[in-house]
Amino acid sequence: MSKAVRIHETGGPEVLKWEDVETEGPGSGEALVRHTAVGLNYIDVYHRSGLYPLPALPAVIGMEGAGIVEAVSEGVEKVAVGDRVAYAAPPPGAYAEKRLISADRLVAVPEGIDDVTAAAMMLKGMTAQYLLRCTHPVKSGETILVHAAAGGVGMILCQWASHLGVRVIGTVGSEAKVEHAKTHGCDYALLYDDGGYVNEIEVITEGRGVDVVYDGVGSETFDSSLESLSMLGHLVSFGQTSGPVEPVELGLLSAKSATLTRPVLFHYTESRGDLVAAANELFDVVGRGVVRIEVSGTCPLADAAEAHRDLESRLTTGSTVLIP
Ligand SMILES: NC(=O)c1ccc[n+]([C@@H]2O[C@H](COP(=O)([O-])OP(=O)(O)OC[C@H]3O[C@@H](n4cnc5c(N)ncnc54)[C@H](OP(=O)(O)O)[C@@H]3O)[C@@H](O)[C@H]2O)c1
Fold first, then answer.
1. What's the CA-to-centroid distance between 148 and ligand 1, angstroms?
2. Tens digit of pLDDT for each residue in 248-288?
3. Across residues 182-204, what is the average pLDDT?
């Protein structure tokens, strides 16, 4: 028996319940991981609220963690008992003291990276990796717009983009977050101001617009994101913290021959080779200090509801880590 945060129904943070759960031994290809740190991500809110349906209830949510391998099934060679590992992968199940997971989703954590940092960076950092390197491989000299630049994904993405020679414009929801964005890769940090930032972008880019918008905010920013694009620009809509984007009329893109993408991390890391390559690239930039992982807060896993309230109330910056 061990403890986990489960939901029996979808809804607000109050549906998160700290409960006893049965922990079985690893099945074929699986490892049993004892978590030392669990990452909080916005996708956890989507699972909890029902925006992203779960296959069955009750369910343990959570997609990211770090810890120690306690057992492996016969034939597993990628990891061994005692290894310090981390992951960002489906299925949900990370809000738990212990969990079973397919061993091929686990990567070894380098020595210089502690468990809390690992749990704070795997999902958000590999997202930044694929958005900047695969979805739209940024080129030095390009200008990008990143919404929620002081958030978990935002802070990592902006620092990494800046290192790649990109001019970074970030948006943030409050004056308090402006400095966070500026010290984490943003050349400019603008308040959304009901879309008024579009005029500021026009001035900054001398009327050209930005090459790419990385938009994880969704419904509230979609129109202004499109407006901010340059001719042949690329709108990467990768999340919806303000609500899902309404159906888009394709003809809208023709005004700029714009490209619209709605990518998902787990498709880019589906093969073991791609997963390990993305994790290694992330470990490299973090190890060299190019990207600093900001853990703005830790919270007992049992109090996950409180952490969800803060995340949804836009009170957090950087990453929050839940401690079992
Ligand atoms: N597709 C993928 O592969 C993928 C992978 C990882 C994450 N994501 C997406 O990336 C986004 C960021 O995730 P994260 O975990 O790093 O979260 P986060 O950015 O740390 O937190 C969410 C931020 O969104 C902003 N926001 C704007 N409007 C909001 C609203 N109405 N309600 C709540 N927040 C609002 C807030 O920043 P301001 O106050 O500064 O606006 C808030 O701090 C999410 O949309 C997530 O789903 C997608």
1. 6
2. 999 999 999 999 999 999 999 999 999 999 999 999 999 99
3. 94
In angstroms, the CA 165 to CA 161 distance is 7
Q: Is 125 in the pocket of ligand 1 (CB under 6 A)?
A: no
Q: Separation of 302 CA from ligand 1 center, angstroms?
A: 23
Would the pLDDT of 195 be above 80?
no
| pTM above threshold 0.90 | yes
Give the other-Cβ count within 10 Å of 268's Cβ: 19
- Indicate whether 317 pLDDT > 80: yes
H or E element in which residue 276 lies: helix 272-287
Q: Which atom of ligand 1 is nearest to the CA of 316?
A: 43
Alpha helices per DSSP H over 107-231: 115-130, 152-163, 175-182, 197-204, 222-228
Domains and CATH numbers, the chain: 2-122+280-323 (3.90.180.10), 140-262 (3.40.50.720)
Q: Name the residue of 179, 186, 217, 322 to mutate for ligand 1: max ligand atoms within 8 A of Cβ.
A: 217
